């Protein structure tokens, strides 16, 4: 199918019921992750930066869970960095990365801009949901195509920029030729940053999605003024057509995984295996002498047994496994602040060793697998066997589990979590204006006094 035409022609009536439901779940999950992310220094710095250096001119959009305004480009950038700061957001195996982290902030920035312009009709809930799905469909395919054609392992921002550009093309709106130019600009300027650099040396740059959102939205506004950039090779070169021919028939949004824990996806199979052994044998952390993890190569690069920052904790394998063995779950508040100095968690973390198993590496990225062996001080040992990460499409989280995850993040943080959840659940049931949802999502976050900061 012609991709620029699809961007403009996709209608709510074209979406199967399962796709509509998945769109709601993706939205709810991303909002919960964003609420957790708003507690981070990364989010605060990014939002302040957007207000100061991407200030609102003729166009303004509110920043995700902040209330302040910036340009749509700045608001999108800050929102994507906020979601990325928690690392609990959805993803796709073949892209080895994330698209929703950019799709939602880009869509919110564009929707809020439209809402703030009296001459523009208010966006309805069905168009909002359709655009959300569209972003997933374009971004996921762009990610697969780019990984298939590029020699390096780049961050998600390199390709989810095209999702943001597609949304800008639809909602500004651009004509077909301008849409081609926007996609080309976004592909060219999307950050081809090195993913493994951030794995080996975790910092706030993370997965590049804030820069991808900024590049994609900028591409749309530039194309609107006549800036050129076509073609986007990931869409238009002959070898890439196989990834785009099934637009509108194969729904890539249904292939997204959901994260039970707010850490790098590569650590999840080991966490799941460790949790299963803990439950099955009634283990207490004080009984554990050592842990051996056999897993795929990329996961072994997640070292950092004694993280000094939230980012190092999220890109660690031993530390979150140790958290799971002590507490039975990986809470977001266990990955920040004084929790990083938990003596028992650090003892366990240093007692964990990871090694590559070739058969597991061969199954990556389609599957992420680990085998965990726990040895106790009394000499007993327990083996998990090969364990695939839960939340994948073939091992899906129940919708109820995704909703519970939202509540664990939202309670005590958002002043109206029930209203927020209700509005997301009703999206598409009718075509009421999206403005009330925007106010809940883009207004100043009313912080509550609570020691509970959510866990996944």
Descriptive account of the structure:
The structure is a single chain. The protein is an alpha+beta fold and 456 residues long. Helices cover 50% and strands 7% of the residues. It has two domains: 3-255, 2-methylcitrate dehydratase PrpD (Orthogonal Bundle), CATH 1.10.4100.10; 265-388, 60s Ribosomal Protein L30, Chain: A, CATH 3.30.1330.120. α4 (72-86) packs antiparallel against α10, α7 runs antiparallel to α8 and α15 crosses α16. The longest helix is centred in the first third of the chain and has 25 residues, at 125-149. This is MmgE/PrpD family protein. Residues 5-234 form the MmgE/PrpD N-terminal domain.
Q: Helix- and strand-based class? A: alpha+beta
**What is the count of β-strands?**
7
CATH homology-level superfamily of the largest domain: 2-methylcitrate dehydratase PrpD
> Number of helical runs?
20
Quaternary assembly: single chain
GO molecular function, one term: lyase activity
Pfam family, one: MmgE_PrpD_C
Protein name: MmgE/PrpD family protein
Domain MmgE/PrpD N-terminal: 5-234
